[in-house]
Write a structure and sequence with these properties.
- The complex is a heterodimer of chains A (253) and B (263).
- Helices cover 35% and strands 26% of the residues of chain A.
- Chain A has helices at residues 46-54, 94-104, 109-122, 138-151, 168-185, 196-202, 233-247, and strands at residues 4-15, 18-30, 35-39, 61-66, 69-70, 78-81, 156-160, 188-193, 205-210, 215-221.
- Chain B is mainly alpha-helical and 263 residues long.
- Chain B has helices at residues 3-30, 42-54, 57-89, 91-104, 113-120, 124-148, 152-160, 165-203, 209-218, 222-250.
- Chain B is globular.
- The relative contact order of chain B is 0.12.
- The chains are: A alpha/beta (253), B mainly alpha (263).
- At the A-B interface, β6 and α2 of A face α7 and α8 of B.
- Adenosine-5'-diphosphate is lined by residues 13, 15, 20, 22, 40, 42-48, 214 of chain A.
- Residues 13, 15, 20, 22, 40, 42-48, 214 of chain A line the site of adenosine-5'-diphosphate.
Chain lengths: 253, 263
């Protein structure tokens, strides 16, 4: 059985200027522990689709099921990581941020601090448990955000361009770290990106989307062994394949 | 970090300013242009201050004034913070409160004193209500702006982590709005401090710094009046710097939500 089923989902934004199509007629199935990338130029509805799965937006039509249960609003079966570093609570330490979801579950302090500490260790931040977010670099803040989204043990992790605002070197390191975290936790991940190499490095399967209106254009399975070598011929072939799909709609990069 | 040497420098600068101002005043007082009873020299003022401190009267006056100001100020927080949050969260509350606040805010708090005296008689109640009136608007409006400026990502993230309304309120909205709330409290205290002295001049009997000034006028005790002014200035300054300054340092500055202002 699929873990996530997206059935013919559409969303139209009602704006003062009129109706803007966000996504149109998207259908997808994901199996347990699959790493799926949504790839496409900006404005093609990646964030919209992710926010629908997260339950922050209600689709105009269509349906989403996670583990067989219809999605209706947000829920603790999903963890969310945004692009903006400001998603962390500035008034809480790294540990306090990661423990937030556990606190909401009513888990006693000692236990949640221990779980939170282990999550921070998973993202290699055990030395920074007591730091406030403004003392951490962008990459570290995003790692705290990942630890925070994993701490209350959701089965699905939703990530919206989490590394897009980082410099290229940090981004590479973060991608390797995320691949490790995924291998260890076996979460089902939907990862939004507009970076082709990133999609090939991370994904089991890439969904290529096109704008005006946001639609699924193609689906590419990335069947390379892990850890992946971005300089291998096969890796570059996958990139070319994706670029070809994108190129038809997307001339300006 | 050069925090401590910065601090020393700013203290030194403030001292120079005060010294220069005091010297100018002293020169005017000694110039002979004005009667010495009306413009007493600094040693005379210092003596009056010292006397009233020694016999404890100044402390009692200050105690009464502080009691009134803190009472009214606390009421303003208890009333203004929740109402400001409700305004930001619920449109009908905002629609109801905003016109009312706009209409009342321009009325100087002291203008209420005579009518409050009619209603409540002379005494503490009037001063406390005037303080409450003066302090409420900055707290209310800053809290309102603060809650509206809470990053929606925090609310989304907290919601995704299973926060209910109650946790959202206490663990996200209040700390998220705290830079504004603290600014509001700061402005409110300043206004309250100004208001209480004014109110005491008219409405207090026997005790209070404002009342001292007014009472001393009857006996042409300019030195006592100025001594009371000095105490008013010092207490206001101490609260501004020590109480609200440390509150900011321990919270929003520590969290990096506002930067330290160079002074
Ligand atoms: N809150 C919104 N109100 C109106 N239109 C929106 C809103 N968010 C996104 N859109 C529109 O929906 C389309 C898809 O946007 P989005 O999902 O953000 O794309 P992406 O994340 O791929 O860049 C775009 O045309 C965008 O302008
Ligand atoms: Mg987006």
């Amino acid at each position: 059985m699929s873990h996530i089923e997206i059935r013919d989902v559409s969303l139209v934004y009602d704006t003062p200027a009129g109706q803007v199509p966000g996504v149109q007629g998207v259908s997808l199935d994901m199996r347990e522990s699959e790493f799926l990338c949504l790839l496409g130029p900006s404005g093609c509805g990646k964030s919209t689709l992710l926010n629908i799965v997260a339950g922050f937006l209600t689709p105009t039509s269509g349906e989403i099921r996670i583990g067989g249960k219809a999605v209706n609003g947000h829920g603790t079966d999903r963890g969310v990581v945004f692009q903006d570093f400001a998603q962390l609570f500035p008034w809480r330490t790294a540990l306090g941020n990661v423990a937030f979801g556990l606190e909401m579950k009513g888990i006693p302090k000692e236990e949640r601090d221990e779980i939170a500490f282990n999550q921070l260790k998973l993202v290699k931040l055990e030395k920074f448990v007591k730091s406030y977010p403004h003392h951490l670099s962008g990459g570290m803040q995003q790692r705290v955000a990942i630890a925070r989204a994993l701490a209350y043990n959701p089965s699905v992790l939703l990530m919206d361009e989490p590394f897009a605002a980082l410099d290229a070197m940090t981004r590479d390191a973060m991608q390797r770290l995320l691949a490790d975290v995924w291998r260890e936790t076996r979460k089902t991940i939907i990862y939004v990106t507009h970076n082709v190499a990133e999609a090939v490095y991370l994904a089991d399967r890439v969904i290529v989307m096109t704008p005006h209106p946001g639609k699924v254009k193609a689906e590419v399975v990335i069947d390379l062994p892990r850890p992946r070598d971005p300089l291998s011929v096969e890796f570059l072939d996958c990139q070319k394949q994706l670029l070809a799909h994108l190129g038809e709609t997307h001339q300006v990069s | 970090m050069t925090g401590s040497s910065d601090r020393v420098r700013s203290i030194r600068r403030a001292t120079v300013t005060i010294l220069v101002a005091a010297l100018c005043y002293e020169a005017i007082a000694r110039s002979g242009y004005f009667p010495a009873v009306l413009v007493p020299t600094i040693p005379k003022i210092a003596a009056a201050l010292w006397r009233s401190l020694l016999d404890g009267t100044m402390l009692i006056h200050a105690g009464f004034t502080l009691y009134r100001v803190l009472f009214g100020f606390s009421l303003a927080i208890v009333f203004g913070v929740p109402l400001g949050i409700m305004m930001a969260r619920y449109r009908p509350v905002q629609n109801f409160v905003l016109p009312l606040a706009s209409a009342l805010m321009p009325v100087p708090s002291l203008a209420w004193v005579p009518i409050f005296i009619l209603w409540f008689g002379l005494g503490n109640t009037v001063s406390i209500l005037v303080v409450f009136y003066a302090a409420t608007f900055p707290i209310l409006l800053n809290t309102w702006s603060g809650v509206r400026s809470v990053n929606p990502l925090w609310l989304r993230a907290a919601g995704a982590m299973g926060a209910d309304e109650n946790s959202l309120f206490w663990k996200v909205i209040i700390p998220g709005a705290s830079p504004f709330i603290i600014t509001g409290m700061r402005q409110a205290f300043l206004r309250a401090w100004i208001a209480v002295v004014g109110a005491e001049m008219i409405a207090a009997s026997d005790w209070g710094l404002g009342w001292t000034i007014f009472d001393a006028k009857e006996f042409l005790n300019a030195d006592v009046m100025i001594a009371a002014l000095v105490v008013i200035g010092c207490i206001g300054f101490l609260f501004e710097r020590l109480v609200f300054g440390s509150l900011e340092k321990a919270t929003v500055m520590r969290w990096g939500m506002v930067k330290a202002v160079k002074s």
